[in-house]
Every structure is written in structure tokens, then in C-alpha cells.
Write a structure and sequence with these properties.
Elements: E1 9-11, H1 19-35, E2 38-42, H2 48-62, H3 66-70, E3 82-84, E4 89-91, E5 94-96, E6 99-104, H4 136-161, E7 183-189, E8 200-203, E9 209-211, E10 218-222, H5 225-230, E11 240-242, E12 246-248, E13 256-257, E14 263-264, E15 271-275, E16 279-281, E17 284-285, H6 303-311, H7 332-341, H8 356-362, H9 364-370
Parallel strand pairs: 1-2
Antiparallel strand pairs: 2-10, 3-6, 4-5, 6-7, 7-16, 7-17, 8-9, 8-11, 12-15, 13-14
Helix pairs in contact: 1-4, 2-4, 8-9
């Protein structure tokens, strides 16, 4: 991992600009994924009107009556899909103060009653009705379909960037691919990449946090632990976090007051103690086969790529320890199921938000194994 100081920007339109432009993109992709693990994808092949539509829908989704949102509660869904109230999740061992919906691409499979529990992670999502939010499901489903197509195109390009055949990652996906379910989220940080507020940061090799502030016409792309494991650590699963953005201190340095009369002060580095308002994020998570054991299906590289891995500087001190089970020979689905139920200890990064209450209701045997003393105490 390099001590990067900014997140690289890759322009997707280079791929249609001739062989020289395409070669430039592939080279930039190799550097971004092996040295940073984070990138901005400029001009992605997703319709602008869909991007704007999903952004416009986000506040409307959270403005639904509380009773309507509670009717879609995740705790009632064995696939961990649905709504979570503010403070209902646990991330990195602590209560996570955000409101969130988890959705998914269409599930077209059939349940095997004798199959492993983790197969139940793929199932039908809970959507607001067209009566409550007209057009929401159709719009988001169309957007997610384009994200799925882009994700597979991206993986083929990444394989090429690593000196591999373009189909090198196909072993990690089911056939046909449309049987796979990809997870999605719509998140509201009430006191905080779909709204123009900063907050997302990536950690470099020196342990410093580098802002990944919103940029027009871009998607933020980062790799996960499964990809890092499959690529023998060549592609980095970079730690990241979301902070509450603050307003800068006014030139006169005076104490400020909110509309309701509550006073707020300034930190020693000149930032307000008052949050700047809601931040919305709409991430998409590409899935891999639930049955594949990643550690038993590692990629083999040409010597040129092996030299790149050998000559790269040390990883440095980051906080990324989540999903270590990928390296222990467990099926991908089981790793995901454990991650959905069990809170990750403090200082883990890109930790999934755990939902032990869902685990207790729908996966009681695994819950008892993970929590012999009952539900964890929130901090």
C-alpha cells in the first residue's frame, strides 16, 4: 500500500478513445487498485437521468411516515434486507447513528430446504409500495441493473490490468450470473456520495485518512476483503470510514447559535461542533458465489505481476481486519452471514453493519455460537 495523498480519478471514456487511451486506462486501473484500493470512476456507463433520479428519491424515502418505514423492518427478513432505524446497527463494535434501507437485485433462485443457512442471504427485498413512493422500486431496480453490468465489465478490465485473461474472475461468479443477488443500500447520516457533503475517508499506509469528497459525474469504487484475498493481496481492501462533516469557523471567531437557540462552539482546529446536515449515500455491493472458498481459488499471475507484488512497499498500519474468514477456507456465503450477525471489534474498518437481532430471530444456532451470553451491549 502506498502513502497516497489523494484518491485517483479514472475516466471511463478513455476506453472508447482508441488503443492508446485504453492502454492508459488499464495502466491507471492497475496503479489505483494495487497502490490505493480506492478510485473515482469518471463518466461511468450509467444513465445520468437514473443517477439523478436515485439521488432525488433518497430524501423522499426517509421522509416516509415512521410507521411505513417500520413496516419494512429488517428484523422481519431472513436475508437482512429492509429498514433500520437510527442507531439500530452496530459497526466496529459501536452503535451506528444512521438510518438505512438495505435492498437487493431480484432473487430468481429456489430455496433448498437442506442447503446451508447462508443461502438464505439471497432472497426477495422489502420495497416501499408504489402507493407510498410511486416509481421508487422501478427507478432503483433500473439503476441497480446498470450497476451490475458495470461491475462485471470492471472486473474483466481489472483482470487485464493484473496481466490475466479478461475472464480470470469468472470462477468467482455463478452461472448464469443473473441467479446471483447483489446487495444495495440507501443510507442517511442525519447529522452529517449522493449529497454534496464530505465525510468519506480512505486510510493510507502511514495511517493517515485521505478525504474522498464527492465529485460530479463520478462513482467511488473500492475493493473488499474477498478481492484482496483472491488476488493474494495485490489488490488492496483499503480501510475507510465516514466522519460527521463540520462547518469552518467564521473569521470573527464568535460563538454561534442555532435557530432553536442552542449554542455551539469551535474545535481547536477551527471546526464547528455543529453537524452540517444530512448526508446520503447509495452504495452497491457486487456479490460473488456463495459457495466458493476464496482461499482455495487464488489467482496465479505472470512473472511481471508477481514482481509488482514483490516490489511494492509494506502495507503500513491500517485498521482493516474485517472478513478475515475469507483466508480460512470458509465459503463466501458463510463469511458474509457471520459478518452480518457479529459486530466487528473496535478499530476494524470497512466493517459491515452487523445485525445481531436479525441473527437471533432467523439464525438462532449460529447466534448462540457467536453470542453465548446473549445480545451484545451497545456502546
Amino acid at each position: 500500500m502506498s502513502s497516497f495523498e489523494e484518491i485517483p480519478v479514472l475516466d471511463w471514456s478513455l476506453l472508447s478513445g482508441g488503443s492508446e487511451s485504453r492502454t492508459k486506462f488499464i495502466s491507471q486501473l492497475r496503479s489505483a487498485m494495487t497502490e490505493v484500493g480506492f478510485l473515482y470512476l469518471l463518466n461511468p456507463p450509467i444513465d445520468d437521468y437514473l443517477v439523478q433520479s436515485v439521488i432525488d428519491y433518497a430524501p423522499k424515502l426517509f421522509d416516509l411516515p415512521q410507521a411505513t418505514k417500520d413496516g419494512l423492518a429488517m428484523v422481519n427478513n431472513e436475508s437482512f434486507l429492509g429498514y433500520n432505524r437510527l442507531g439500530a446497527e452496530i459497526t466496529k463494535g459501536s452503535t451506528d447513528f444512521r438510518e438505512q434501507f438495505d435492498f437487493a437485485t431480484p432473487w430468481k433462485g429456489q430455496r433448498n430446504p437442506k442447503g446451508p443457512d447462508y443461502e438464505r442471504l439471497w432472497g426477495p427485498a422489502q420495497w416501499p409500495s408504489d402507493t407510498d413512493l410511486p416509481g421508487f422500486q422501478a427507478t432503483y431496480s433500473a439503476y441497480y441493473a446498470q450497476c451490475v453490468e458495470l461491475s462485471f465489465q470492471f472486473m474483466a478490465l481489472l483482470a487485464e490490468a493484473l496481466g490475466l485473461p479478461s475472464d480470470a474472475f469468472e470462477r468467482y461468479f455463478d452461472t448464469p450470473k443473473d441467479l446471483m443477488v447483489h446487495r444495495t443500500k440507501v443510507i442517511k447520516y442525519p447529522l452529517l456520495q449522493a449529497s454534496p457533503h464530505p465525510g468519506l475517508e480512505a486510510q493510507n499506509a502511514r495511517g493517515q485518512w485521505v478525504p474522498a469528497s464527492p465529485r460530479p459525474r463520478t462513482l467511488v469504487v473500492n475493493s473488499g476483503k474477498a478481492l484482496e484475498t483472491a488476488t493474494r493481496g495485490l489488490v488492496l481492501a483499503t480501510s475507510h470510514r465516514v466522519l460527521v462533516p463540520r462547518e469552518p469557523k467564521p473569521a470573527n471567531g464568535e460563538r454561534q447559535t442555532t435557530e432553536g437557540g442552542s449554542a455551539y462552539d469551535w474545535t481547536k482546529d477551527g471546526l464547528s461542533t455543529r453537524p452540517t446536515g444530512a448526508r446520503y449515500s447509495i452504495p452497491f455491493f457486487q456479490s460473488i458465489s456463495q459457495d466458493i472458498k476464496v482461499s482455495e481459488n487464488l489467482l496465479d499471475y505472470p512473472q511481471e505481476t508477481l514482481d509488482l507484488l514483490k516490489n511494492r512497499k509494506g502495507d503500513g498500519a491500517t485498521e482493516s481486519v474485517n472478513f478475515s474468514e475469507y483466508a480460512l477456507g470458509q465459503p463466501s456465503g458463510q463469511v458474509q452471514l457471520i459478518g452480518r450477525i457479529k459486530p466487528i471489534q473496535a478499530h476494524a474498518s470497512h466493517a459491515t453493519e452487523s445485525h445481531p437481532d436479525v441473527g437471533e430471530r432467523h439464525y438462532p444456532e449460529l447466534f448462540k455460537e457467536l453470542f453465548p451470553g446473549g445480545l451484545p451491549i451497545r456502546t
